[in-house]
Amino acid sequence: MLYVFRLIDKPDSAELRQRVRPAHKAYLGAVAGRIAFAGPLTHDDGVTMIGSLLVIDFDSRDAAHAWLADEPFTCAGLYAGSEIHAFVNLWPQRAGFAPAP
After folding, report:
1. Which residue of 17, 35, 49, 72 could cross-link 40, Cys pair, CB 3.0 to 4.6 Å?
2. Do 8 and 74 contact (CB within 8 A), yes or no?
3. Domains contained in the chain, CATH given
4. Per-run averaged pLDDT (10 residues), the chain, 101 residues
């Protein structure tokens, strides 16, 4: 089952986010084959990060919660709030892909 993680940063946490980001990316790398999509939530400027949105396949809600509990941004106290929702993808993604290298 796909689970959506909507994770909102605490105010004034840009430095913490940047410092912990390498560990966060490595942690995501461990589940890379199960990620439907992932990236930062931003202000309308498209640059200033305010949180994260992830959609990852897990066997259960408990597994999704356990994964989030050990996620580096969570462990560092970055998030002011988090939500996890089951998700059914009914529309093939056509937009929003990262630019080709």
Report:
1. 49
2. no
3. 2-87 (3.30.70.1060)
4. 97 95 96 94 94 97 98 97 95 77 73
